[in-house]
Amino acid sequence: MTTEATRTAVVTGASAGLGEALAERLAADGWNLVLTARGEERLAKVAARLGAAYLAGDIAYDAAHRERLIALAGGQVDLLVNNASTLGELPLPTLAEADLEAWPEVFETNMRAPIHLVQLALPSLRERGGAVVNVSSDAATGPYATWGPYGASKAALDQLSNVLAAEEPAVRVWAVDPGEMRTRMLADAVGEADAAEAGDPADAAAAIVRLVEARPESGRYEAKAFAEGRSEKGTRE
Question: Is the pLDDT of residue 1 over 60?
């Protein structure tokens, strides 16, 4: 990667939860930031607090927004964090009851948009020896009832991360499972009470940034295990 003084990270879903926590941690470590999320008001506040550039918009369905977002980095993307995602239909349904018409949005947001952003950023990532963090989930590997569409989209993102790593040896590509976190998304899925028992997004963010700085080989990682030194590289169970 380039020197610490010139490193730039693009972070999606940066107005709340893990994305906001990652932006805060990267800013504290001296990274230049380009942030995006759909809600402009909250995103603007996060960006102002961190001294970051930002562009509100929809990464799933607005191709022009994706192009403008990467252009904001001025051809100097050292790190792309694909964090934005959606659960889709709520309450989460079983596969027997799922509305299949709701699935395209899940796959557009969680799988296709991240790869489109990668395509746009690749010239810079190759030149600068950069890295991609694709935020995954344990739902990508575990048989959790009602998490079918979301888990399938993240499993697809995991496999695309594997292929991207094989195709782009000059770029590190990490699919990272951050673990369960106290976020609005989790509360929407399991309820406020259960979500309150989950981990702090700041802890997951710290673990992911530690992985970025350590720059291990491309692969799928569990953030907590990596941070604790219990296991560097995660495996499917």
Answer: no
